[in-house]
Design a protein that fits this description.
With about 425 residues, this protein is an alpha/beta fold. The chain contains 12 helices and 20 strands. It has a 10-stranded mixed beta sheet, sandwiched between helices. It binds inosinic acid.
């Protein structure tokens, strides 16, 4: 049975969780393959709301095996907090949550390094979530100072490794800034050995687990974290996250070959948002942007930062849809645009006097681009109660049709509110 991947095609926060939820209870495995506790997602379950940033959304369903793949960087404190949050709410999280022994571990010196690096970056700040994601991936790739989850389970080994690593980290941090925090290897080791006791029942060889599941023809869902424009290779580098958020990350980050993924659903907002620094050609620094931010409640789930808001950028989404190999797209938060006299879609850019149809992922080239818009009539009707495509006001339908034409992909659903019921299937 081919697997499915749900992936955001903008800069994250596209409401991917709702699409995952809509796909229903048919999945036996729900797998994360990239990132860490930088991926805030709110899950509404009955009358309860859970705020997770590390665990896959599948954890709420007892029949689902939720997998944190080898491609993630894991802060054990967050892992324990999120499991506790669920346990207290009566959700049993046991053997059905499996954490790869090859995932990498985030330590407090990663957070400190990130804090100092951001503080000294001035205007070039990435605007990270501050969760130590980048420095931990740096250590992973650098190999010498990295610690994998599996290593937490061997006390003597962990103590030795931290005695090697921590003095180097302390020197490096001090060189970054005199005021840098310093760490004690043995104290850290004992702290992390304490966490390891909580993690241990979940730690396993997730590659073997997933390969066995594939042989048994199990139905799998891959949850991409962040958005495709934050992908470390193809996003607006250096204003990106440090992992492969595109479905290309599945193979490396979980061990499941891409050829097993048969359906890729790209998720977009009916407009665009971005948190943190970096170019954003269609950004709206005006009342319209403020209105969309307010109505769309565009504030970061992890950091609470106001999200930057702009018009839908078809150049960017054509680029990411092609990179992701998206079969279809879902258009979220269409209801937020109600009440605007007109709505705009960016069809192409102008850069140094030339027409540009292809997204320049180089942040510096992108900064020189100005968006060229097509202006469409807005609509006043409240869309949140509408349940069929035919009932949508003509102007809203026209807007969705233009997105379909510009992105050149069929539309799976249009979403007009957070509730599962506030979803409109679109016949293509
Ligand atoms: P990092 O992932 O914390 O290193 O942050 C790098 C960039 O990615 C920053 O601009 C963050 O705001 C952004 N980012 C990371 N995770 C998310 C997410 O889940 N949604 C939206 N933006 C994110």
């Amino acid at each position: 049975m081919p697997a499915t991947c749900v992936v955001g095609l903008q800069w994250g926060d596209e409401a991917k969780g709702k699409i995952t939820d809509l796909l229903g209870d048919g999945f036996e495995y729900v797998v994360r393959y990239n990132g860490g506790a930088n991926a805030g997602h709110t899950i509404v379950w009955g009358d309860r709301t859970f705020k997770l940033s590390l665990l896959p959304t599948g954890v709420l369903k007892p029949h689902v095996t939720s997998v944190i793949g080898n491609g993630l960087v894991v802060n054990p404190v967050r892992f324990i907090e999120e499991v506790d949050q669920l346990t207290k709410a009566g959700v049993s999280v046991g053997k059905n949550l499996v954490l790869s022994d090859h995932a990498h571990v985030i330590f407090p010196y990663h957070m400190e390094e990130e804090r100092l690096a951001e503080a000294e970056s001035g205007d070039g700040k990435i605007g990270t979530t501050g969760r130590g994601i980048g420095p931990c991936y740096q250590d992973k790739v650098g190999r010498r100072h990295a610690i994998r989850v599996g290593e937490l389970l061997n006390a003597e080994h962990l103590r030795l490794r931290l005695r090697q690593i921590v003095p180097i980290k302390n020197r490096m941090l001090k060189a970054m800034h005199d005021s840098a925090k310093q760490f004690d290897a043995d104290t850290l080791a004992e702290e992390y050995l304490g966490y390891a006791k909580h993690l241990a029942p979940h730690v396993g060889d997730t590659v073997q687990l997933l390969h066995t599941a594939l042989k048994q023809n199990k139905n799998m869902l891959f949850e991409a974290a962040q958005g495709s424009l934050l992908d470390v290779d193809h996003g607006t580098y250096p204003y990106v996250t440090s992992s492969s958020s595109l479905p290309s990350g599945i193979w490396a980050g979980s061990g499941v070959p891409s050829r097993n993924v048969g359906r890729i659903i790209g998720v977009v907002k009916a407009y665009t948002t971005r948190v943190g620094g970096g170019p954003f050609p269609t950004e709206l620094n005006n009342d319209t942007g403020e209105r969309i931010r307010k109505i769309g409640r565009e504030y970061g789930t992890v950091t609470g930062r106001p999200r930057r808001v702009g018009w839908f950028d078809a150049v960017a989404v054509r680029y990411t849809a092609a990179l992701a190999g998206a079969d279809e797209i879902s258009v979220m938060l269409l209801d937020v645009l109600s009440g605007l006299p007109e709505v705009k879609l960016c069809t192409h850019y102008e850069c140094d006097g030339q027409r540009v149809d292809h997204f320049p992922s180089d942040a510096h080239a992108l900064e020189r681009c100005t968006p060229v818009y097509e202006t469409l009539a807005g609509w006043n009707e409240n869309l949140t109660g509408i349940r069929t495509y035919a009932e949508l006001p003509a102007a809203a339908r026209n807007y969705v049709e233009r997105i379909r034409e510009l992105v050149e992909l069929p539309i799976f659903v249009v979403s007009v509110g957070p509730d599962r019921a506030q979803t409109i299937p679109v016949g293509n």
